Prior knowledge:
Elements: H1 5-8, H2 23-32, H3 56-71, H4 75-85, E1 88-91, H5 94-106, H6 108-111, E2 116-119, H7 126-141, H8 145-149, H9 169-173, H10 175-186, E3 192-197, H11 207-217, H12 222-225, E4 239-244, H13 246-259, H14 274-279, E5 285-289, E6 320-326, H15 330-339, E7 345-350, H16 368-375, E8 381-383, E9 413-417, H17 418-421, E10 447-451, H18 464-471, H19 474-498, E11 504-509, H20 513-516, H21 523-526, H22 528-535, E12 540-545
Parallel strand pairs: 1-2, 2-3, 3-4, 4-5, 5-6, 6-7, 7-8, 8-9, 9-10, 10-11, 11-12
Amino acid sequence: MQSDPRESVGHPQQNLHLDHLPPELLSQIFECLVPNEPDSGETRPVAYGQLNPEESWFEVTRRQSGLRSSCLVSRQFYTLARRFLYRSISIIDEVAMVLLLRTLIEKPAYGQETRYFSCHLTLTESSTIREIRKYAKEIFRTMDQQLLLGQTHPLLKYLTTLHNRKMTMDEYDEIPQMILLCILVLIPKIDKMLLQIPLHEDDAEYRALLTHFHAVTLMNTEGREKWRGHAVPCQHLTKLVLQGDPEEMSDAEQAAKEDGEAVGVDGSRAGTYWPLLTACPAVTSVEVTIGNGDWPESSWFDQDKPLWASLPHELRNIKHLDLVDSFAAPRDVAVALSCFPQLESLYFEPKWSPENVGWEDEDDVITLDSALEKHGRSLRRLDLAWYDCSDCLISISEETILSSLPKLTNLEILYVQLALLFTEGRSYKDREVILDFSNLFPPSLVILVLEEWWWNDSMYWFPSGNLQEEHVRPEKHLQYCASLEYSLITFASICPNQLPSLKVVNFLVRLSRPWIGGGPETMEQRLANVKSAFAKNGIEFSTWQI
């Protein structure tokens, strides 16, 4: 029998396993398996085999499965991998929510590791309430009753009566919210949370959740006394995502498409969730998806005995506000600026709907321009765009330009439509003139993204074939394109003096056909003179089609 050649040179034979790696190295490996946060606005995942590899849930599911499998390899792996297993938690079904609460009660140390939590259930939906109530009764009956009775936190005491007493209809409907609150108590160190909220005006809001969070902010009241000496949830939370129910939105869009009617959704009422912001002092970033844009909201339930007054006039701790797929009008953004006067970044992405154009009251004196001048001095990044704002000029600016921008002396990144900058006229027929960009931007600007206005919003009502034939004839737009090209070249010449920090200019167009017709020329070739003019002054210029 031939001997192992390693023995002859003094290297004893070893069985190499991952178990033999240093714990520090294993911990780094397991940390790489912690799931990334799922993208906001995504619907809940289907079966793993049906997931698209490009979906965020695909990677989340794979990583979570890898951590679970690692816990089954050996005792050492279990000890090291377990704390990463609970680092990021996403609730996607009712039974998982109840099981998570049971696990955290039995093993409270697990919740100390959690840093990200997301709940992808609408907790006021009737089917969700019914399912959670059913699973809660079944699962909590199997728990150690002494463990439940031994809970001292006022919220966790609620669990002791969950399965053995009669409830009113209101209490029955609040069970999912109370379970969520108990989970939040047991994961005190989370720094980011996604909460899914309803879309329709007729849907009930999270009354129980907001009531308890509002009690945290009240001093010298019975509600506040209940919390004394006990952990207050979400005190380390830095980012809150309020996600309008994407499944509800998808169903509404599908129904509207089949019926040939408008989408019957008003958007989530994120303004009613301000008690979460006031009770969580570390929150600096808020993201709202499919929101109706209303800030603030007055008390929205029990008008005879309002639980609290309207939104506090200012929430100064919020530095970053992202409004994604939003139904907000320019006036709504102006109100948001007054509610969050210390904003450093404001991102707005519109949700296209034919019904959300022409929202404004002619007597409304609140304008986006005045709000930016008064409340936008801290902004470092501003990103604004609407599909059509031709019917709400009065809420954009009282002047012919957005005159507040030069006064935003901290602004470094700006994305803006030309239709917002020059608030007179929206048609290409009105734009056969040279646009004056001088003294329009602050000298601190580093990156500027300009989007050309859209000259015919009725494009959304026509088939693509008719659009090409009837609405986008290059010969009608030649003067418009030539004027805008010359305006950009002139703008490039004044940048060194007026915008010394400017490094990048991007120009976005909705359709390239008016610029290049049907020929082989590209947008880059069409605007080569513009690019050259900016390059002479050390500024990078590029053009994209959106």
